[in-house]
Amino acid sequence: MNPETLFWIVPAASVVALLFAAIFFFGMKKADEGTDRMKEIAGYVREGAMAYLKQQYKVVAIFFVIIAIVFGVMAYYGLQNNIVPVAFLTGGIFSGLAGFIGMKTATYASGRVAEACRDEVDGLNKGLKLAFRSGAVLGLTVVGFGLLDISGWYLLLDNTGLVQGTGVEKLVEITTIMLTFGMGASLQALFARVGGGIYTKAADVGADLVGKTEFHFNEDDPRNPATIADNVGDNVGDVAGMGADLYESYAGSILASAALGAAAVAAAHGTVDQAMQLVMAPMIIGAVGAILSVLGIFIVRTKQGANQTQLMAALNRGINFSGVLIALASAGILYVLGIDNWLGLWGSIFIGLVVGILIGKVTEYYTSFEFKPVKFIAENATTGPATVIISGIGVGMISTCWPVIFIVLGTIGAYLCAAGELSFSGENLSMGLYGIGIAAVGMLSTLGLTLATDAYGPISDNAGGNAEMSNLGESVRSRTDALDALGNTTAATGKGFAIGSAALTALALLASYIEELKIAAGRLGDSEVFLSYFSGTPIGKGSEVATWGIAEFMNKFEVTLMNPKVLLGVFVGAMLSFLFCGLTMNAVGRAAKSMVEEVRRQLSDKEVFEGTKKADYARCVAISTQGAQREMIIPSLIAVIVPILTGLVMGVAGVFGLLAGGLAGGFVLAVFMANSGGAWDNAKKYIETGDAPFCGKHTPVHDASVVGDTVGDPFKDTSGPSLNILIKLMSMVSIVTAGLNIAFSLL
Amino acid sequence: MNPETLFWIVPAASVVALLFAAIFFFGMKKADEGTDRMKEIAGYVREGAMAYLKQQYKVVAIFFVIIAIVFGVMAYYGLQNNIVPVAFLTGGIFSGLAGFIGMKTATYASGRVAEACRDEVDGLNKGLKLAFRSGAVLGLTVVGFGLLDISGWYLLLDNTGLVQGTGVEKLVEITTIMLTFGMGASLQALFARVGGGIYTKAADVGADLVGKTEFHFNEDDPRNPATIADNVGDNVGDVAGMGADLYESYAGSILASAALGAAAVAAAHGTVDQAMQLVMAPMIIGAVGAILSVLGIFIVRTKQGANQTQLMAALNRGINFSGVLIALASAGILYVLGIDNWLGLWGSIFIGLVVGILIGKVTEYYTSFEFKPVKFIAENATTGPATVIISGIGVGMISTCWPVIFIVLGTIGAYLCAAGELSFSGENLSMGLYGIGIAAVGMLSTLGLTLATDAYGPISDNAGGNAEMSNLGESVRSRTDALDALGNTTAATGKGFAIGSAALTALALLASYIEELKIAAGRLGDSEVFLSYFSGTPIGKGSEVATWGIAEFMNKFEVTLMNPKVLLGVFVGAMLSFLFCGLTMNAVGRAAKSMVEEVRRQLSDKEVFEGTKKADYARCVAISTQGAQREMIIPSLIAVIVPILTGLVMGVAGVFGLLAGGLAGGFVLAVFMANSGGAWDNAKKYIETGDAPFCGKHTPVHDASVVGDTVGDPFKDTSGPSLNILIKLMSMVSIVTAGLNIAFSLL
After folding, report:
1. CB contact under 8 A, B574 and A424
2. At residue A692, does pLDDT exceed 60?
3. Please, are residues B156 and B71 in contact by the beta-carbon 8 Å criterion?
4. Residue range B586-612: mean pLDDT, rounded
5. Which partner for A441 in A282, B19, B183, B402 could form a disulfide, CB atoms 3.0-4.6 Å apart?
């Protein structure tokens, strides 16, 4: 079938996704809000969350304006396409809007979920459905806006005179320009993840250290002044942050695949039709996945009194349903598009889906207390906090093994399926790289649904908080706890999935960087391209450089592993991941310390401690907000500036090294931190269950496990997830500054 | 002057170094051993250490025999030179012997140092001199055996018919064969570092957790059954392990530089004389450095009642003296050898020296309580152990920034000085890589002395232990404490130095890998070289491949960063560092747990607790020994097998990726772990000083800092230092199996 016709599925799916997001949103709004106290609590959380987001968007806006101006200047000097500054902004706006809507929904929903759980007959099922469909608002908004942004720009660039040229060349130009839109989404995601991550953990650690450890309050005790901030944190970190992160992966993987597809056909001197097929495939798969996600959402339901396994089964039913259907559908899509190697590309997509599932399973193995690793950490709590930390770090580091092996095998597999033969050179290289990109698209195709299971977690968590603070009684709390516990499991696998998709997307972006460099070279026309400022002889005219194949390009730009610039780029990249994590860890530490001091100050007032005087929640919310805003600046600046600086000093070779080192180092570090954190969290929970040979709450063994959990908080919710963005953002920054890299490098 | 003549300095220096090692050893043996109790304690430690080493050598011997057989088979099939299996063994034997002698010396010395400190008039000076000269035995033995092994094999290969060919080619062949001797040293070092590291920290953590935390014993309380094991651990970990580690860096950097020098001249079609100059330069600089180290050792002395600063000044005087002289001497050596670009190469050497010093300074900044980072961690102890851990990890991660920048700038600088111009391509690439190698030689040239300051630490530590267990009284203990405190500072900078030199050496080894591949290709003669088993067309005959320049070689073998095999190798390499650390962390955890249980069991006997019945030290020694032996197998196997497996599956491109990823990831991880560990250790010590605003021992704040210190133990003494070996060993394994890589790869 004609790809141009099939394309219309993309805007259509976008409308469908956004429509159902609206239906779920207004459906949720109609649900009962509960008692006045419940409304009050929900109101505090909503206000706090909105205040934070407003503050964050202010800072982000400043960054966006500055960068848009820089891009404008670059465009003026011909180093970049004129459209980029505008497109950069839309990417950021849509990503921010998705986070905003998702979070607004979550803060409206959590009180209502608590209210639903008060139904003694069908409370659990009602609560699950409400929480899950509210989470689905985030999932569908992300997917809907993503497809809208992509299809909108494609139509604009294809049908106006903004892009010159014809045929395959025009498609290459359109798709590589579109790729740079991702930069806006990336930057928005960075602030959302880093700022949100610092916010949520400063509040959480602060609330726990004083409230739980010093005063032995329960979780969400209304006397704890940091409780509201803690609940706000779940929303800004786990809802808005996660949404922005995956928005970026989603858009990034589709755009990178499209660009790689056009480039692969250009390299093979193929026809416009062939190029259109490869460009459309990722978009249409994403669109069909979005529609299947909506169907999957309707399948999730359970019965009253369901246990953990049955609840999990309910969610899995929806996920499996959409997963199997998209696997089948994508084969059909590729076939209908008329792609020659449709079966091979389908293999790549299938591999992407499988790798996503496997990484999720490994994450579950290393972070669930059903299995040995977490039990091992829990055993180590009997010899105190030090051995808890040692064993948790040990387990987390070991846990990096399988995800890396899966990514490696998956990438090779996706490459080979797409390339159609066992070779890593020449023209096939381009097709193989396209295979890697489309594997990422496969992994993310049902994002609408998987993101719903993610966002469901913090909503349930907040519902529990609302129930506790509103004194709704044991039976209600036990229902919200059941929903929340499930949320923890889905959050752990969701994190594995977020990291895995970030790695594949970043690999695809890395491949796209070279295409962007060639486009940038083409823009230079007859001007000479120099390897470096100090090198005397030019390596070719811009227009020639633009025609080189990948192998020739890499060769001329000396991007081999014996070039010290490449090697040293790899060093800097690996280091950057650590620096970034260290800065965010310390940021949480500092912000948490202010929080601890404030909570101690308030609780030293006897009336507050006894609950007769209301704690000043707003002050704690303000501390977290300010801490997060202040602390997110430096890591964010580093993430943006280092790739640019590396390019200016060490050129294309240095940037490639930087991206490869950052990607590999960042991925491994992210898996380590996420899994250590998750394992500590569940080791504590395991000890709390009171199962032999360990004892329950408020024993030295439990205290030791709480130390692990507290250390794990910034591991799994701040530094680890922020690395997902770092690895993608560095590629994105390099892609949009490719013009600079081609025009100038010092060494 | 004729390089052949100057060469004789090398064996001569070897003899001088070994001679002075013997003089210092027998001088130490003549010193008074003290009371019967002191002899008894020293006897226990000596026995324990020897028992451990014997056990370790047994395991190592099995490995060596197996690997020698494998090499033999490879040699039989023409995949390797016939000499390699034998040479592999001598490297291992000399390295093991140096560790054995150094440790034997240390265990004889520590009791005598305690005795020397009993002198009320001149005790401190006597103690310092004795401890330091005993440490120098290790330093000089390492250097002496290293130079002996190198010069012996050079003479053998140069003057017999073992190597065919003439002129530059013969030199290339000789030096690349010699390089493989380093593999034996590497493997010995791996076991020494990993086994010793596990041993020492299992004993330390076990002794502390029960003795200090549960029973509030002081350090080295004779009632603690794990005390002797703890003291043994200092010897097997910090003396034998550190010695083997640096033996490998020392030999590796000289051998790699020699090989790179010969290759650089071959690439530039230079004369035999030029090749000889470059081959001899690193050996002669090492030899002169050894002699200057001996002189430096004689300069270290201090006066009674000297404070920390004066003690440090005494050590620094020796180090600065040798450092300045070798800087001057190496300029002379290069000039006398008649090297054209002697000034440039001198620049490379000077940069190596400076980078070593700078990394040491950064390490000091991040790990000494004089500075902000450690104070920041100490402040975080006021909010409990969790914030101590978070801030320590944050500080450690941030501390990776400067060492990486220094290594990056230093490597670029060394490259540019040697290459003589600002370009990273063609023939200059070979000369530039030689510059990187010789920078490592410069950094390590005064190893005889710097290693003495390292080994001095555990000797002083053990002297303190002996004084405590023999009840020598406050004034003696205060003197041994002063020596010990100094030892902690030198140990921290020593670790920075060990990591820095490992990184530069590994970079040089990586560069040598390509030379080894070419030699291996040459051995294949008329046989075709295939890129992979599945690729249909050969890339050239073996004899042709052997003549390719670096750029052509990298191009033909597709070692560019867009080759998925390379990228994925980088992933696996980065992951391997984490896996290796995780395994060793958990190994310490498990071994420490057995120790905790044994100590608890013994102390549950009231008589042992009250000190009326002697604790069963031997049992704890046996537990550490067995634990270390058992636990070191798997990490060691991984380090050896993964590079081979990567080569078999992903070929030369995959191996290059693996080495680059492992080197960068491992270096950054090693710096992080060493500095976090050191910072925690000193944060605890800072709190113990009682300086405001923190309190002294046995307060909650102090307890929190003890948790950090305990976590830091395996960080800084097991996992971190083991990574130094990992990054070098992986290159070494790849170098000796280069024949396999050329002959076969699956993908």
Report:
1. no
2. no
3. no
4. 88
5. A282
Q: C-alpha distances in angstroms, A217 versus A203, A222, A593, A708, B114?
A: 15, 9, 19, 19, 53
Q: From CA B160, how far away is CA B156, in angstroms rounded?
A: 6
Contact criterion met (CB below 8 Å) for A741 and A652 = yes
Nearest CA in chain B to A412: B564
Contact, B141 vs B18, CB < 8 A? yes
Of B407, B578, B588, the CB nearest to A672: B578
Q: Is the pLDDT of residue B669 over 90?
A: yes
- The neighbouring-strand residues paired with B41 are none
pLDDT higher at B123 or A144: A144
Residue numbers in B near A656 (CB within 8 A) = 561
Chain B closest CA to A42's CA: distance in Å? 30
Contacts of B169 (CB under 8 A, 6+ apart): B266
Provide Rg for chain B, Cα atoms: 25
Give the pLDDT of residue A691.
67
Q: Between chains, do A514 and B562 touch, taking CB under 8 Å as contact?
A: yes
Contact predicate A411/B564, CB 8 Å? yes
For residue B76, count CB atoms less than 10 angstroms from its CB and return exposed for 0-12, middle for 13-18, buried for 19 or more.
exposed
Q: How confident is the model at residue B427 (pLDDT cuts 50, 70, 90)?
A: low
Q: How far is A432 from chain B (nearest CA, A)?
A: 9
* A34-50 burial code (b ≥16 CB/10 A, e <16): bbeebeebbebbbbbbb
Interface size, chain A vs chain B, as Cβ–Cβ contacts under 8 Å: 317
Tokens at B633, concatenated:
């197998």
CB within 8 Å: A667 and B565: no
pLDDT range class, residue A306, cuts 50, 70, 90: confident
CA angle A559, B532, B76 (to 5 degrees): 115
With bands split at pLDDT 50, 70 and 90, how would you rate the model's confidence at B88?
Answer: confident
Q: What sign for the dihedral angle of Cα A110, A115, A120, A125? A: negative
Cβ atoms B708, B675 nearer than 8 A: no
Distance CA A597, CA A314 (A): 43
Q: Would the CB atoms of A534 and B560 count as touching at under 8 Å?
A: no
Q: Best of B575, B600, B734 to disrupt the A interface by mutation (most A CBs within 10 Å)?
A: B575
Q: What is the pLDDT of residues A35-59, one digit of tens each?
A: 999 999 999 999 999 989 888 888 8
Answer yes or no: do A567 and B660 touch at CB < 8 A.
yes
DSSP string, A448-517: HHHHHHHHHHHHHHHHHHHHHHTT--HHHHHHHHHHHHHHHHHHHHHHHHHHHHHHHHHHHHHHHHHHHH
**Residues of chain B with C-beta less than 8 angstroms from the C-beta of A393:** 582, 585, 711
Smallest CA–CA distance, residue A305 to chain B, in Å, is 37
Q: Which residue of chain B comes nearest to A714, CA vs CA?
A: B390
Q: What are the C-alpha distances in Å from B226 to residues B233, B488, B604, B621? A: 10, 21, 14, 7
Give the C-alpha separation, A90 to A149, whole Å: 8
| pLDDT of A693 | 61
Average pLDDT (A114-122) is: 88
**B561 vs A contacts (CB less than 8 Å):** 554, 559-561, 566, 656-657, 660
Interval B680-697: pLDDT, tens: 998 988 888 776 566 666
> What pLDDT, in 10s, does the model give residues B179-197?
888 889 989 999 998 999 9
Q: Give A390 to chain B, closest Cα distance, Å.
A: 6
Look up residue A63 and give its two tokens.
């960054």
For the ranges B7-21, B112-126, B130-144, B214-228, the lowest mean pLDDT is seen at B214-228
Instruction: Give me the interface pTM, i.e. the ipTM.
Output: 0.93
SS3 B541: strand
